[in-house]
Specification:
The complex is a heterotetramer.
Chain A: H1 2-25, H2 30-43, H3 45-70, H4 78-95, H5 101-130, H6 134-154, H7 160-165, H8 193-210, H9 212-222, H10 224-229, H11 234-259, H12 271-275, H13 278-288, H14 293-317, H15 321-337, H16 339-346, H17 350-362
Chain B: E1 7-16, E2 19-29, E3 34-39, H1 45-52, E4 60-65, E5 68-70, H2 75-80, E6 83-86, H3 98-103, H4 116-130, H5 145-158, E7 163-167, H6 175-190, E8 194-198, H7 202-208, E9 211-216, E10 219-225, H8 231-239, E11 257-267, E12 273-283, E13 287-291, H9 298-305, E14 313-318, E15 321-322, H10 328-333, E16 336-339, H11 343-347, H12 354-358, E17 369-370, E18 373-374, H13 376-389, H14 406-419, E19 424-428, H15 436-451, E20 455-460, H16 463-469, E21 472-477, E22 480-486, H17 492-499
Parallel strand pairs in B: 3-8, 3-9, 6-7, 7-8, 13-20, 13-21, 16-19, 19-20
Antiparallel strand pairs in B: 1-2, 1-4, 4-5, 9-10, 11-12, 11-14, 14-15, 17-18, 21-22
Helix pairs in contact in B: 14-15
Chain D: E1 17-22, H1 32-41, E2 46-52, H2 58-70, E3 75-79, H3 84-90, E4 98-102, E5 113-118, H4 120-134, E6 139-144, H5 149-165, E7 170-175, H6 182-194, E8 199-202, H7 208-216, E9 220-225, E10 236-242, H8 245-256, E11 264-267, E12 274-278, H9 286-301
Parallel strand pairs in D: 1-2, 1-3, 3-4, 4-5, 5-11, 6-7, 6-8, 8-9, 9-10
Antiparallel strand pairs in D: 10-12
Helix pairs in contact in D: 4-5, 4-9, 6-7
Classes of the chains: A mainly alpha, B alpha/beta, C mainly alpha, D alpha/beta.
The complex binds adenosine-5'-triphosphate (ATP) (2 copies) and magnesium ion (MG) (2 copies).
Chain lengths: 367, 502, 310, 308
C-alpha cells in the first residue's frame, strides 16, 4: 500500500522539479511559482474547493476507466462520451424544464449516464461483435461527438436570445434552476458533484469486487477463455464494460453542465473546451490509483490539485499556459514510467498482482 | 572422439520464489551419446535445460563446453556454443512460414533481404539427411504438432548444433513418429552430436538412451547406464517409493446412459473437421477412457461436449437433453462437470484467489450470490471446506491460484467440479503435468465418482493411465472412435495399433 | 450535385484529399512498424507537434525546407528512443504513457513557439514537382502528378515499408517479435533491440510527418496537428497493420474530408448541416472497417511487454 | 486581500491600474486574443497587465477570472463570448471589481460589468467592397471557422459589402467547422480556388492555413482581427484591425477614478476602434482605396448599413 502511494508521489515531485527549473529558465521566480502551485490548489478554502471541483470529472472518468481496464479494454473515448452525456442531459433539461427539482435533477443526471453509455457501448458493441478495435472507434467517435455538439449548440439547442441579439454565441440559455446541482454550503461554489463522483467510485469498486457481474468482467479481463468456460458471455461483457465506462464519463459531462457556474452548455468548437481534457486526464488519474476505483479518489484529488495549482502558478508568475500542459505530460510520463517499480514493491497485494496480469492479458483481445 | 565430455554442468542451483527448482545439480554429456534426463513433473528438468540455453541465470554453478568454462547469458551465446534446444512448449511463430521460422535470427546471404529460397533448399537437404521432411512454405499454424516438432529440430540442426536438448519431444507424437524420431537421433549421434533427451515415458528412455540421469525435487537422485536400468528401478528413483501402477478399483455394473453423443462433427481451428461423425455413450457408474495420440481431435471433442466450441452437426445429450452448441452455462445447467485440458488458461484464473476460483463457474448460484451481490461468508466457507476436503495445498484461500503447484491447481479444479455433484464428468488430461502423488489421488477421486453413479468420460494421452483407470477404452484416431474395448481384455499392443490408425 | 462531378472539382477533391492524407500516411506508416513489433504509441500526435515546431523553426532560420524536414525527423527520432525506453525498458502501460507524450509535445511545442518565434512568420514550402509526361495528362495530371516532392516520397515509402516488413531480415524480426517474442528470443533475436528500432522509426516518421505538415502549410501554430496523430493511430488499426491498408485508410479519410469541403464550397451542403457533414469521414471510416475488421488479427503481443522466462 | 500576490511584474503599487486578461486562444494567434493583448498594451494608466491565454476550457477561464478579481486586479477582461455565462455568476461576488466581457453586447444589468464588441461586419463590409473591385473572375472565397459570433458577423458584412458593390460577383463561403484545423482551412482555400475564386478572406486563428494558400497562388487576401501582413507580405491587401484601447481607455479612466461602469462599448469606424490597415507591400489601385474610404464614410454617417 505504501509503495502504491509513495512511488507515484515521488514521480510527481520529480516532474515538478523539472517544471520549476523550466520556470527559472523562463526568467520567472520558481519559489513564487511553487508557492502559487501549493497555495492555489490547497492553500485556502476556495483553493481546496477549486481542486475538488477539478477532480470531480477526473474521478468519474477514472472510475469508469478502471472498469474498462479491468475488463482489458482501453477506453480513450472519454472525451466524446462526456460530450454525449452533456448533450443528452442538456437537451432533456431544455425539453422538460418545468419538472420539479426532485424529478428533473435525477433525470438529467440519468440522461448523462445514458448518453455516455450509448457512446461507450457503441464502441464496445463494435469491438465485441464486429471486431472493430476500440482505439479506432473511440477516436472516431470523439470526432463525431464534437461535430454533433457544435451542430446542436449552433442550431436546435441555441439560446433564442443569441439569435435575437444576433450575437449567435453557440450556447444554450441558462438551464432550469431546478436542474442545478445543489450547493453543499449555500454561499460558495462547492456543489454536490464531488459527492456523486465519490459515490461513482464506490459503485465501481462494489461492481468490480462485490458483484457476480464484476466477477465476470474481471474474468473476461484476465482470461477470455476461462471466462467463457465459466459461462460468461464475453461479448456481452466487453460491450457492457465500455458502456459503463462511457456512462460514468457521460455523468461527468452532465455534472460539468449542471455544476458549471454558468449552468449552461457552451462550445468553443472543440471537445476539450467542454471537457477540459478530463476524458484523457481521467485515464491518468485511474493509473495514479493503480486502476483501483477507491485509490482513484485520492489520485484524482492529487491530479486535480496539480491542474488547478498549475493554472494558479501560470497566473502568479505569468509563464505561458503551455508550460502547464507540458508539465502535466511530464507528470504522466514519470508516473507511468515508475509504475513497474510500484508494481514490484506492491507485488503480492491482490490487485497489484491482478493489474500486472492485466497488462499481459491486454494482448489477447486487441483485435 | 568420445573421450572427455563435450558438455558439463557443475553444481547448478536455481531458486524460484518458493521453489528450489535446481539444487546443486551436476550433469554431463559425451559426444555421440543420448543422455536421458528423467523425472516427475516439476523435478527441475526444464529449468536445468533453460539454464544451459541461457534463458535463466543460475544462482550458482558453472557450464563447461568442451572442457572450458563458458558463460551463457542468453540464447545467442548458447547457439554460438553449438547448443540447440527443442523446447517443451514449441517456440514457433504461428503466422510465419516454416522457412521464416528457421531463418529467424540468422544472418542472410542477401542482407538486408532474407534469402528464404536458400533456407528452404538447406531445409530440404537437412530433411533428407535426417529424415525430417517438411514443406518450407507452409505457415506454421497450418501444420500438425508432429510437423512443428520437426521444425524445432530443424532449427537446431540448421544452426549446426552439436549439443541438442530435446525437452519431452515425444509427448505429442504417434508411436510411428516416435520411431522416426529415434531414427533421426541415430543419424545425429553417428555424426558425433550429443543429445539430451527428456521424457516421462520409461520404455522410450530405455529404448533410445545410453545413460539415464534421474531428478527429483530439483536434485539428481541417480545416474545409471541404460543397460543396467529397468522400469521398476527408474520409477522408484523418480518417485522415491515403489509405485502402484494400477489403482485398486472394485468391479461395478454400469446403469442408464447419461451421455449420448451421435454423429458429432466439430470443426478445428483451421476449419477442417477435427471430429468426424463421432458416436459414443457413457453410462452411469462407468469410466470411459478415450485413448489416442494428441492432435486426433480429443481437444475439439472435449470443448464441444463442454459447450466451449460450436459444432457442425450431430447431438450431445446430457440425460436426454441436447446441449450441443448451447454454450457452457447450458451444458453445466444440465449436469456436466468439466475438467479442461487447458488447466491454466481455461480451468482457472491465475490472478483470482483460490476462493474466487472455487466459485468461478457457480458464482451465479443462490448459495454464492444474492441478486447479483456476491455472498462472501458463504464463498469463504465453501472454499475452506473444499481446501480441507480435497487436501489442496495452499497458504490460504486468499492466495492467487497461479501460485499453486500444477497438482494443486488440478485438485482445486477437481474440487470445484466434483462438489457441484455432476451427473456426467468430463476430465481431459486430468493428470498431465501433475506429479505421481497427486495423480494417484486424482485417479482415486475419479473412481469414487464412478462408484457414486456418475458417468465419467476421461480423455488421456497416457495409455498407462487409461488402462489403469477406465472401465471401457475408446480409441480416438483422426476425429473418430476407431474401436472400443473393455479394460479387462485390453492389450497394450492392440490399443497402440488402434491409436496409430491401424 | 452536377457541379460536383465536373472534372475541375473532381481534380480539386482528389488532389486535396491526397495532400490531406500525407501526414496521416507518414505517421501511420511509422506507427505500423511499432505496432507490428508489439508496441503501441498513443503519443504520435505529441511527437508530430514537436517535429513540426522543430521543422518550422529550422526552416524559418535557414530558409532550407530539407534541413527543416531533417530536424523534425531527428526530433521525432529522439522521442521515439525515449518512448522505447519508457515502454520497452521500463515496461510502462502503453495505453497511458502515450497520453503523457501527447500532452508533453502539445505543451512544449507551443511553449517554444511562443518563446522563440512569437508572431507566426511564413516559411517556404517544398518545391512542387510535375512528373514529366504524366503531369500533362488531361485529368490525371493535375490530380496525381502536380504535387510537392514530399507527396511522392510519402507514397513511395509505402512499397518500401511493405518490402522492409516482408522481405528483409529486420522485417522478419519485427513480425516475429510482435507475434511470439519468446520464440524470437529463443533464437537470439533481441526483442528489446527490435522494439527500440521500431519505436525509433515510428518516432522519426511522426516527427517527419509534423515537419511536412508545417512546411506544406508554410506556417506553425499551437496544436497545429489538431489530433491528426490520433487519427493516424486509428488508421493503423483500420489498415490492419499493413502499409497498403494504412495508405488506403489515409486516402479514404483525406478524400472524404476533401469531398465534404468541396461540397460546402459548391453549396451542396447548406451551412446549417455542415457540422453533420463533417462527421461523415469518421463515421464512414468506422463503417468501412466493420466490413473488413474480422478478417485480420492484431499482432498477438501488441501492448504486451516482454519478460524472458515467463 | 492585498493586491500584491498577483501579477508578474512587481505588484500594483506603481501608478496606474492593474488589468487582467483571460483569453481563449494563444496571445500570438494573429487573431482574436492577440487583438486584445495588443489593445491593452496600448492603454495609458495601466501599471500591470496579467495574461492568461489559451484558456479554451470555459471552467478554467471562470476560475482565472474569479482569481484575478480575488487577487485585487482592478479590471478583469473576460475576452471570450463563451465566458459570459460564467461572468454573470462571478461578477456579483466582487461588487468592487470592474469586469468587461468581450466580444458581446450584454452586461446582464450588472453595475460592475461592461461589454465590448467589434462591429466586425463594418470592416467586413469595407473589405467586401474592395474585394468586389479586385476580383477579375467574379468569384470571391471566404474561409470561416464555425458559423458563430464574431466570425459570422464579419463574414456576413463581407458578403453584403461585395454584393452591394457588384451584385454580379459570387461570394462563396466555406465554414470548415473548426477553429483549430489549419490544414483543413488551407484545403478549404484550395477548394475555393478550384471554383475560380481569385480573392480570399477568412477569420479566426486557423485561417493562417488559408493565407498560406493565397500566398502560394498569388491570390489577394483580406485579413481581420489583427494585422496579418507579416504572414504574407505580397498578397495581403488590407486588414481590419481592432483598436480595443479606443473603448477600453474610457473604462480604465473610470476605474482609475474609482467609478464602476456598466456600458456596452462597440469599436467601429466612427470611434476609430476599427481601422483598415493597408499593406504597403501590396499596391492597391487608388480607386479601390477611394471606394473603401467612401464605404467607411457611409458607415460612419449611417448612410450605409452592413445588413449583417
Ligand atoms: N458477463 C455478463 N454480464 C452480464 N450479464 C451476462 C453476462 N454473461 C451473460 N449474461 C447474461 O446471461 C445471458 C446468457 O448468458 P450466456 O453466457 O449463456 O450467453 P449465451 O447467450 O449463452 O451466449 P454464449 O453461448 O456465447 O455464452 C446473456 O445473454 C446475458 O444477458
Ligand atoms: N519461471 C518460473 N517461475 C517460478 N517457478 C518456476 C518457473 N519455472 C519453473 N518453476 C518451478 O520450478 C520447478 C521445476 O520446474 P520445471 O519446469 O523445471 O520442471 P520439469 O521437470 O521440467 O517438469 P515437467 O516434466 O512438467 O516439464 C517447478 O516447481 C516449477 O513450478
Ligand atoms: Mg519441463
Ligand atoms: Mg452460454
Amino acid at each position: 500500500m505504501l509503495a502504491k502511494t509513495a512511488i507515484p508521489i515521488a514521480a510527481v515531485i520529480g516532474a515538478l522539479v523539472v517544471g520549476l527549473l523550466a520556470i527559472a529558465a523562463l526568467g520567472a521566480d520558481p519559489v513564487r511559482a511553487l508557492e502559487a502551485l501549493v497555495q492555489g490548489s490547497l492553500g485556502s478554502r476556495d483553493a481546496l474547493i477549486e481542486t475538488v471541483l477539478k477532480a470531480t470529472p477526473l474521478l468519474l472518468v477514472g472510475a469508469g476507466i478502471t472498469v474498462a481496464f479491468r475488463t482489458s479494454v482501453i477506453n480513450i473515448g472519454g472525451e466524446g462520451q462526456m460530450v454525449a452525456g452533456g448533450l443528452l442531459s442538456t437537451s432533456t433539461a431544455l425539453v422538460v424544464p418545468d419538472l420539479p427539482a426532485w424529478i428533473l435533477l435525477p433525470l438529467v443526471l440519468a440522461m448523462g449516464l445514458v448518453g455516455g453509455a450509448v457512446w461507450g457501448g457503441l464502441a464496445g458493441y463494435l469491438k465485441a461483435f464486429w471486431g472493430v478495435n476500440e482505439i479506432l472507434s473511440t477516436i472516431m467517435l470523439n470526432i463525431v461527438a464534437v461535430q454533433l455538439m457544435n451542430y446542436l449548440l449552433r442550431g436546435p439547442l441555441i439560446d433564442p436570445g443569441e439569435i435575437e441579439r444576433g450575437t449567435r454565441i453557440p450556447q444554450t440559455k441558462r438551464l432550469p434552476e431546478a436542474a442545478d446541482l445543489p450547493l453543499l454550503f449555500g454561499d460558495d461554489r462547492l456543489h454536490s458533484g464531488p459527492l456523486i463522483a465519490v459515490a461513482a467510485a464506490i459503485f465501481a469498486y462494489i461492481l468490480l469486487w462485490r458483484t457476480t457481474f464484476g466477477l465476470r468482467l474481471r474474468a473476461v479481463g484476465l482470461s477470455q477463455e476461462s471466462a467463457k468456460y465459466a459461462g460468461v458471455n464475453v461479448r456481452w461483457s466487453i460491450t457492457s464494460a465500455l458502456a459503463i465506462s462511457g456512462a460514468l464519463a457521460g455523468l461527468a459531462g452532465a455534472v460539468l453542465v449542471f455544476g458549471a457556474e454558468s449552468h449552461r452548455m457552451v462550445t468553443d468548437g472543440s471537445t476539450a473546451g467542454f471537457t477540459g481534457n478530463a476524458g484523457f486526464n481521467g485515464i491518468v488519474a485511474a493509473l495514479f490509483g493503480g486502476l483501483h476505483p477507491l485509490w482513484t479518489i485520492p489520485a484524482s484529488f492529487l491530479f486535480g490539485a496539480l491542474l488547478v495549482g498549475g493554472n494558479s502558478l501560470q497566473r502568479a508568475v505569468q509563464v505561458p499556459s503551455a508550460l502547464i500542459l507540458a508539465l502535466n505530460g511530464l507528470v504522466v510520463l514519470t508516473v507511468v514510467s515508475t509504475d513497474l517499480v510500484r508494481r514490484r514493491l506492491a507485488a503480492g497485494t491482490d490487485d497489484a498482482h491482478e493489474a500486472a496480469e492485466l497488462v499481459s492479458a491486454q494482448a489477447e483481445d486487441t483485435s | 572422439m568420445t573421450e572427455g565430455p563435450m558438455l558439463e554442468l557443475r553444481g547448478i542451483t536455481k531458486r524460484f520464489p518458493g521453489v528450489l527448482a535446481n539444487d546443486d545439480v551436476s550433469f554431463d554429456l559425451k559426444a555421440g551419446e543420448v543422455h536421458a534426463l528423467l523425472g516427475e513433473n516439476g523435478a527441475g528438468k526444464s529449468t536445468l535445460m533453460k539454464i544451459l540455453y541461457g534463458l535463466y541465470e543460475p544462482d550458482a554453478g558453472e557450464v563447461l563446453v568442451n572442457g572450458s568454462v563458458t558463460s551463457i547469458s542468453d540464447p545467442a551465446d548458447a547457439i554460438a556454443q553449438g547448443i540447440g534446444m527443442v523446447h517443451q512448449h514449441f517456440m514457433l511463430v504461428p503466422s510465419l512460414t516454416v522457412a521464416e521460422n528457421v531463418a529467424l535470427g540468422l544472418d542472410s546471404s542477401r542482407r538486408p533481404f532474407t534469402d528464404l529460397d536458400k533456407v528452404a533448399a538447406r531445409i530440404r537437404e537437412l530433411g533428407e539427411t535426417y529424415g525430417l521432411s517438411i514443406d518450407s512454405d507452409a505457415a506454421v499454424w497450418q501444420l500438425s504438432v508432429g510437423e512443428r516438432q520437426r521444425i524445432e529440430i530443424l532449427k537446431a540442426l540448421y544452426r549446426d548444433a552439436h549439443i541438442l536438448v530435446l525437452d519431452e519431444p515425444t509427448a505429442v507424437l504417434t508411436p510411428q513418429e516416435v520411431d522416426d524420431l529415434f531414427v533421426t537421433f541415430g543419424r545425429m549421434t553417428d555424426e558425433g552430436k550429443g543429445l539430451i533427451f527428456i521424457s516421462h515415458k520409461l520404455h522410450e528412455v530405455l529404448e533410445v538412451s545410453g545413460r539415464i540421469t534421474v531428478m527429483r525435487l530439483g536434485k539428481v537422485v541417480g545416474s545409471v547406464q541404460t543397460a543396467e536400468a529397468t522400469r521398476q528401478i527408474l520409477a522408484e528413483l523418480m518417485v522415491g517409493r515403489d509405485v502402484s501402477f494400477v489403482p485398486d478399483k472394485a468391479p461395478r455394473e454400469p446403469a442408464e446412459v447419461l451421455l449420448a453423443i451421435r454423429n458429432l462433427t466439430v470443426a478445428g481451428d483451421r476449419g477442417l473437421n477435427a471430429v468426424n461423425g463421432l458416436n459414443l455413450e457413457v453410462r452411469a457408474g462407468e469410466i470411459v477412457g478415450i485413448a489416442g495420440v494428441s492432435g486426433n481431435g480429443q481437444r475439439e471433442f472435449a470443448e464441444a461436449v463442454a459447450g466451449m466450441r460450436d459444432i457442425e452437426s450431430g447431438t450431445i445429450e446430457l440425460s436426454g437433453v441436447d446441449i450441443a452448441g448451447a454454450g457452457p452455462s447450458i451444458a453445466r445447467a444440465n449436469g456436466l462437470g468439466y475438467v479442461p485440458e487447458e488447466r491454466m488458461h481455461e480451468g482457472m484464473i491465475g490472478a483470482f484467489t483460490v476462493a474466487e476460483n472455487l466459485i468461478l463457474v457457480h458464482h451465479d448460484e443462490d448459495e454464492f450470490s444474492n441478486r447479483g451481490m456476491l455472498r462472501f461468508p458463504a464463498i469463504r466457507r465453501h472454499a475452506e471446506r473444499l481446501v480441507e476436503e480435497y487436501a489442496i495445498k495452499t497458504p490460504s484461500i486468499d492466495t492467487h491460484g497461479s501460485s499453486l503447484s500444477g497438482g494443486n491447481i488440478q485438485k482445486m479444479i477437481m474440487a470445484r467440479e466434483l462438489d457441484a455433484e455432476p451427473a456426467v464428468l468430463l476430465a481431459a488430461q486430468p493428470t498431465r503435468g501433475v506429479d505421481i502423488g497427486a495423480a494417484e489421488y486424482i485417479h482415486s477421486r475419479l473412481i469414487a465418482q464412478r462408484d457414486a453413479g456418475v458417468a465419467v468420460l476421461m480423455i488421456s494421452e497416457d495409455l498407462d493411465e487409461v488402462l489403469a483407470v477406465a472401465d471401457r477404452i475408446a480409441v480416438m484416431y483422426e476425429g473418430e472412435i476407431t474401436g472400443i474395448v473393455d479394460a479387462g481384455e485390453a492389450k497394450r499392443e492392440d490399443i497402440g495399433l488402434l491409436m496409430a490408425g491401424g | 450535385m452536377s457541379d460536383l462531378l465536373t472534372t475541375a472539382s473532381l481534380v480539386a477533391i482528389v488532389a486535396s484529399g491526397i495532400r490531406l492524407s500525407v501526414p496521416l500516411l507518414l505517421a501511420g506508416l511509422g506507427e505500423t512498424f511499432g505496432q507490428r513489433s508489439g508496441v503501441l504509441n498513443l503519443g504520435v500526435d505529441g511527437v508530430m507537434l514537436l517535429g513540426a515546431f522543430g521543422g518550422y523553426y529550422t526552416t524559418l532560420k535557414t530558409q532550407n525546407v530539407w534541413l527543416g524536414l531533417l530536424v523534425g525527423l531527428g526530433i521525432g527520432l529522439v522521442f521515439g528512443l525515449l518512448y522505447g525506453f519508457i515502454s520497452v525498458t521500463l515496461r510502462a502501460e502503453q495505453g497511458i504513457s502515450g497520453i503523457g507524450v501527447y500532452l508533453f509535445g502539445l505543451g512544449v511545442s507551443d511553449l517554444l513557439f511562443q518563446k522563440l518565434v512569437g508572431t507566426p512568420l511564413p516559411i517556404p514550402s517544398f518545391p512542387e514537382l510535375a512528373i514529366p509526361g504524366v503531369s500533362s495528362l488531361p485529368v490525371l495530371g493535375p490530380m496525381l502528378f502536380e504535387h510537392s516532392i514530399v507527396v511522392y516520397v510519402a507514397f513511395a515509402l509505402v512499397p518500401v515499408a511493405v518490402i522492409v516488413l516482408n522481405k528483409t531480415t529486420f522485417g522478419l524480426n519485427i513480425r516475429a517479435v510482435g507475434e511470439t517474442p519468446e520464440a524470437a528470443d529463443s533464437l537470439g533475436v533481441s526483442v528489446g533491440r527490435v522494439r527500440y528500432a521500431t519505436t525509433i522509426i515510428g518516432g522519426a516518421m511522426a516527427g517527419a510527418a509534423g515537419a511536412v505538415l508545417t512546411i506544406e502549410l508554410s506556417i506553425f501554430q499551437q496544436n497545429l496537428t489538431n489530433a491528426q496523430g490520433f487519427i493516424a493511430i486509428a488508421l493503423v488499426y483500420f489498415g490492419a497493420w499493413r502499409p497498403i491498408g494504412v495508405m488506403l485508410g489515409a486516402l479514404l479519410f483525406g478524400l472524404l474530408n476533401a469531398l465534404v469541403l468541396q461540397m460546402k464550397t459548391l453549396g451542396i451542403i447548406p451551412p446549417d448541416a455542415s457540422n453533420l457533414a463533417a462527421m461523415a469521414p469518421a463515421i464512414i471510416t468506422i463503417l468501412a472497417l466493420v466490413i473488413v475488421a474480422n478478417r485480420f488479427r492484431a499482432p498477438t503481443a501488441l501492448t504486451k511487454p516482454f519478460v524472458r522466462g515467463t | 486581500d492585498s493586491g500584491d500576490d498577483g501579477g508578474g511584474d512587481g505588484g500594483g503599487d506603481a501608478d496606474g491600474i492593474r488589468i487582467a486578461i483571460v483569453g481563449p486562444s494563444a496571445s500570438n494567434d494573429l487573431a482574436f486574443t492577440q487583438s486584445i493583448v495588443e489593445g491593452v498594451n496600448r492603454l495609458d494608466g495601466v501599471s500591470e497587465a496579467a495574461i492568461t491565454d489559451g484558456t479554451f476550457v470555459v471552467e478554467d477561464a471562470a476560475t482565472a477570472i474569479r482569481n484575478y478579481a480575488d487577487e485585487g486586479y482592478d479590471l478583469v477582461l473576460a475576452h471570450g463570448s463563451q465566458y459570459g455565462g460564467s461572468l454573470q455568476e462571478i461578477a456579483p461576488d466582487f461588487p468592487d471589481t470592474q469586469f468587461a466581457w468581450g466580444t458581446a453586447a450584454d452586461t446582464f444589468g450588472l453595475a460592475n460589468v461592461s461589454a465590448y464588441e467589434a462591429a466586425s461586419d463594418q470592416g467586413g463590409y469595407v473589405m467586401g467592397v474592395m474585394a468586389a473591385g479586385l476580383t477579375e473572375s467574379g468569384t470571391i472565397g471566404v474561409v470561416g471557422p464555425i458559423e458563430v459570433g464574431d466570425a459570422k458577423l464579419y463574414v456576413d458584412g463581407f458578403v453584403n459589402g461585395a454584393k452591394a458593390t457588384d451584385p454580379g460577383v459570387t461570394v462563396t463561403v466555406n465554414y470548415i467547422d473548426s477553429f483549430s484545423d489549419v490544414a483543413l482551412a488551407s484545403e478549404a482555400a484550395e477548394s475555393l480556388l478550384s471554383v475560380g475564386a481569385d480573392v480570399l478572406t477568412g477569420t479566426a486563428q486557423m485561417t493562417v492555413g488559408a493565407i498560406g494558400v493565397a500566398n502560394e497562388n498569388g491570390v489577394a487576401w483580406f485579413g481581420t482581427q489583427s494585422n496579418q501582413s507579416s504572414v504574407a507580405p505580397d498578397i495581403v491587401v488590407a486588414n481590419q484591425v481592432y483598436k480595443w484601447e479606443v473603448v477600453l481607455q474610457d473604462l480604465v479612466d473610470a476605474v482609475a477614478a474609482g467609478d464602476l461602469t456598466s456600458e456596452v462599448y462597440e469599436i467601429n469606424f466612427e470611434n476609430g476602434g476599427l481601422v483598415i490597415e493597408y499593406n504597403d507591400g501590396y499596391d492597391l489601385a487608388d480607386d479601390l482605396v477611394d471606394a473603401a474610404n467612401a464605404a467607411i464614410d457611409g458607415l460612419k454617417d449611417g448612410s450605409i448599413t452592413t445588413g449583417a
